[in-house]
C-alpha cells in the first residue's frame, strides 16, 4: 500500500511516497538524479520490483519545486546528502519503520548523495545500490570511508560513466560489486535492460537487508 508522506528537512518539507509490503524486510530510500523527482519512471519501476520482493520503498523529492528550478542546486551534492539524511532520520523515528533495516538506491547524482550519506552514518545503512550513477561526485574521501555493501550498476554502453564508476570502485574498501548491463546506455532504455538492473538491485538488497540482524541503534 502506497502512502503519500511529508518529510521535514530543515526549513522545507519534502513530498514522498512510502510503500511497506506485509512483513517488509527493510526499506530502501531512493535518491533520484538531477532534473528528476520521486515520479521518475525508472525509479518507480525499480521500486515496484523491490516491493514484489517484500522490500519497502520510500521515493521522495530531494528538492522543492523552487529549488529544482536552479540548475546548480541539482548538482549540490552536499545539499542532496543532507536531504537524504533527513529522510533517513524521519524513517528511523516512525514507529512503522524504526526497527527496519535501511538501504539506499541512487541514480545519477543521487548515487553520490547516497554514498556520502552512507559514509557519514556507517552501519545504520545495510546496503547501497547505484544505477547509472555518478559515484565519483561523492568525492575520494567519502568513497574511502564507505563501509556499507555497495553495488554499482552501469550500462555497458554508457562508456564514460563506466570509466567513472571503475575509478570510484577502485577507491572503495567495502564489500562491493560492479555490474555492467550488456547493451544498456545511460537511461537503460534498451529492451530488458532496466529489468536486469532492477533484479540485480533487488538481489543485492534482499541479501544484505536480511542478513545482518536488527538495525543498529542510532
From TrEMBL:
InterPro entries: AB_hydrolase_fold, Dienelactn_hydro, FrsA_esterase. Residues 79-203 form the Dienelactone hydrolase domain. GO terms for molecular function: hydrolase activity, acting on ester bonds; transferase activity. The keyword Metal-binding does not apply. Keywords: Hydrolase, Transferase. The keyword Hydrolase applies. PANTHER family: DIENELACTONE HYDROLASE DOMAIN-CONTAINING PROTEIN-RELATED (PTHR22946), POLYKETIDE TRANSFERASE AF380 (PTHR22946:SF9). This is Putative phosphoribosyl transferasec.
